[in-house]
Design a protein that fits this description.
Layout (H helix, E strand, L loop, with lengths): L2 H33 L4 H12 L1 H26 L8 H24 L1 H11 L16 H15 L3 H14 L21 H7 L17 H6 L22 H5 L3 H9 L4 H9 L7 H4 L2 H7 L3
Helix pairs in contact: 1-7, 3-6, 4-5, 4-6, 4-7, 6-7, 11-12
């Protein structure tokens, strides 16, 4: 197997799950129409989700693509131990990329600067297939950085890129309430039920089920939670905007406000790189203030 067939397979895989997602979305829309649940606000929320592709695509064209080319040039020049491209190294790369995605995803939830990007994906109170393309513009940049160690290990960059594309493409269909639990698959794969938990802002569901394709990483590292009652979707704080621009920058105003009132370099550093809910001790002792300003 050569690079071209693998790249083509990744593209075809992504296209296939896009079509599956489109079919699920069509059924979701028909169900909403027949049940009277097709509300104007839900349509605006979908538009806001689609609108996030504007800054995302611009960043991918003018930043991420150049970063990827730089990774390829670096690998060709300095990584003499690149693995041969075979079916087996492709399968191994896919597992490695899915494992890396778990940690990329988990870190994006636990570092506030990174959460400013990933929170865009979580800012909808709806759960439908369109939410799958609701991205922060710099998430692709983070993905390349997080997967770069795989290139250092010896995976050829096109294999790593294919793994990233497949892991993301797979997740299109799991953003839905239309599909119930899938029996034994719930323990192995990231399913709609498992991913609904991830989008829940209820205390028991916060920061659970980070997996991309496989949910076994969550079981291994203690972040698995099965779906029990239907989650309340969206951010834990009071955020329910359908204004596209507000959705794009939803977390930045709060971060800049906190940086402006930081009393030391240490506080500023923690506002940037601490957890999203981190607050100085002086504020943490005031529950009403913490509840009002928590950034999750």
């Amino acid at each position: 197997m050569t690079i071209d067939p693998i790249s083509q397979f990744a593209t075809d895989f992504d296209d296939a799950f896009f079509l599956i997602g489109a079919a699920v979305l069509a059924i979701e829309l028909l169900k909403a129409l027949f049940t009277g649940a097709f509300r104007g606000r839900a349509v605006l929320d979908m538009i806001a989700s689609v609108s996030t592709q504007i800054p995302t695509l611009l960043v991918e064209i003018f930043l991420v693509s150049f970063l990827y080319v730089g990774v390829v040039m670096f690998a060709d020049a300095f990584i003499s131990w690149q693995m041969p491209v075979t079916v087996w190294t492709f399968a191994l790369a896919l597992i490695a990329c899915d494992f890396t995605y778990y940690w990329e995803h988990r870190i994006a939830h636990r570092v506030r600067l990174l959460w400013t990007q990933h929170a865009v994906h979580h800012s909808s109170r709806e759960m439908n297939v369109v939410v799958a393309i609701r991205f922060g513009p710099l998430e692709g940049f983070l993905s390349v950085i997080m997967h770069f160690p795989l290139v250092l290990i010896g995976f050829p960059p096109p294999l790593v890129l294919a793994g990233i594309v497949i892991a993301l493409g797979y997740q299109t269909w799991i953003h839905t309430e239309l599909i119930g639990k899938l029996g034994p698959l719930e323990g192995v794969l990231n399913t709609p039920a498992n991913h609904r938990v991830h989008h829940g802002c209820d205390d028991k569901y916060i920061d659970k089920n980070y997996g991309g394709i496989l949910i076994i990483w969550d079981r291994m590292f203690g972040t698995y939670q099965r779906e029990e009652e239907t989650p309340r979707y969206g951010l834990k704080r009071d955020y329910d905007s359908v204004n596209p621009f507000s959705v794009w920058i939803s977390e930045w105003p709060g971060l800049f406000s906190d940086l402006g009132k930081a009393k030391s370099f240490g506080e500023g550093f923690m506002y940037l790189f601490g957890t999203p809910e981190w607050r100085p001790k002086s504020e943490a002792s005031k529950p009403e203030l913490l509840e009002a300003e928590v950034s999750r």
